[in-house]
Amino acid sequence: MKNQINLFTMGFTKKSAKNFFETLKKAGVKRVIDTRLNNVSQLSGFAKRSDLEYFLKTIDDIDYVHILDLAPTKDILDEYKKQKGDWSIYEQKFLKLIADRQIEKKLSPDLADGACLLCSEAKPHHCHRRLVAEYLNNKWGNVSICHL
């Protein structure tokens, strides 16, 4: 196993396309791992799945992969977002979900190294991408996490 896995995370909201793609390029990201449950919404703008995949490849030869097992379920997401749920409850439910899914076996360290976990939240504090990154570090023990 590699000594260290460099894993980035980033949300696309409150970022211009220019800022988003330049940030990925500057960080040296090799692939974007989309962790969103819904990545085809018109609200996603430039980060809509088919557009994003094209832009990443064309602008900086960055690979794109969507791993649905890294996303929350609709029930967990709706309870938190639509019903203004408590973050600690969301966090608890999501961590149980990814543990049950054994995401550390569905995502290889090689795929994670140099990758950026993508979601919509502007900041990582109340975001499932941070939970995914921290969970993987707890399982693998050698993940350096950088929130872009």
Can you offer a commentary on this structure?
This protein has 148 residues and is of the alpha/beta class. The protein has a single domain (5-147), classed as Cobalt-precorrin-4 Transmethylase, domain 1 (3-Layer(aba) Sandwich). The protein is 45% helix and 17% strand. The chain has helices at 17-27, 49-60, 74-81, 87-101, 103-106, 109-112, 128-140, and strands at 5-11, 31-34, 63-66, 115-119, 143-147. It has a five-stranded parallel sheet, sandwiched between helices. Helix 3 packs antiparallel against helix 4 (87-101) and helix 4 packs across helix 7 (128-140). The radius of gyration is 15 Å and the shape is globular.
List keywords for this structure.
about 150 residues; alpha/beta; Cobalt-precorrin-4 Transmethylase, domain 1; five-stranded parallel β-sheet; globular
Question: What is this structure, in a nutshell?
Answer:
With 148 residues, the protein is α/β, with parallel strands linked by helices. It contains 7 helices and 5 strands.
Strand order of the largest sheet: 3-2-4-1-5
How far apart are the termini? 25 Å
Main β-sheet: number of strands, strand sense, barrel status? 5 strands, parallel
| Structural class based on helices, strands and sheet pairing | alpha/beta
Order of helices and strands: EHEHEHHHHEHE
- Residue stretches low in confidence (pLDDT < 50, at least 5 long) are none
The count of β-strands is 5
| Average pLDDT taken over every residue | 93
Number of helices: 7
Shape descriptor = globular
Fraction of residues in β-strands: 15-25%
